[in-house]
Amino acid sequence: MTLIDLLLEPLQFVFMQRAFAVTLIAAMVCGILSCWLVLIGWSLMGDAVAHAVLPGVVIAYLVGTPFALGALVFALLAVLLIGGVRATGRVKEDAAIGVVFTSLFALGIVLISVFPSQTDLSHILFGSLLGVGTAELIQVAILGALTMAVLLLKRRDLVLYAFDPAHARTIGLSPRVLGAVLLTALAVTVVVALQAVGVILVVALVITPGATAYLLTDRFGRMLWIAPTVAAVSAMVGIYLSYFLDASPGGTIVLVLGALFALAYLFSPRHGLIGRVIRRRRRRRTAPNRPAPAPRLP
């Protein structure tokens, strides 16, 4: 069997075609958004929103509505609660995030334990990529297209907000509105990626591509290309690995993402750990020999 035959084999099945499509959409959207999350320092916010959608998913399954609707409602609710607690009290952002997302996640666990027959815990937490239907694919495509359109159309304002909120305010932009746009995009993106890898692993898709791109370039414009490319490649390779190894698709996708981040962390030309060590040794070798300091008198 040739390499082309191996690559085409999974595509013979309709459920694999839908899995590839959903994962590619989710990876591209998450990759673009992750650039802003890493740059602003909102990685923990992404983790919080990803976990806070659990009760919304459970409630959606219980009442028979699309799970994306319940997830989106609770993702927006988590964003509003975190912002409200942070703005109206003495609690700092990290503490507000911890309180809100653990409380909402615990609510989801309680609902699952109370209604065990109606809800599959592993299906919610780890995704059901191979069980994606046509309706779910359409939902993901619509939400993903809307999110990418907003991020790309507002990218200049959002970049200015990320680098210098004070300057954005002086030229007439509202940092509060731009922050709300990013948080809303985060909520929608979590819903998009949730179908692919589930609640627990979705945070990897909204953080790792941006972190990898951040190690590979100092230009934000290049990050917007590198991050979604890293996410898309990881998604495709991860699905192929899951098919041939009979493993969890979400898990293999995140493992490939982690492997690419590790390679960038070690071998990035400018910011890689090994590159820094080599440059430091070269500087030591080429530095002129300095005379030893004279001993001090007692």
Automatic annotation (TrEMBL):
Its main location: membrane. InterPro entries: ABC_BtuC-like, ABC_TroCD. Keywords: Membrane, Transmembrane, Transmembrane helix, Transport. It is found in: Cell membrane; Membrane. It is a multi-pass membrane protein. Pfam families: ABC-3. The chain crosses the membrane at residues 20-45, 57-83, 95-115, 121-153, 173-193, 199-217, 224-245, 251-273. This is Membrane protein. The lineage of its organism: Bacteria, Bacillati, Actinomycetota, Actinomycetes, Micrococcales.
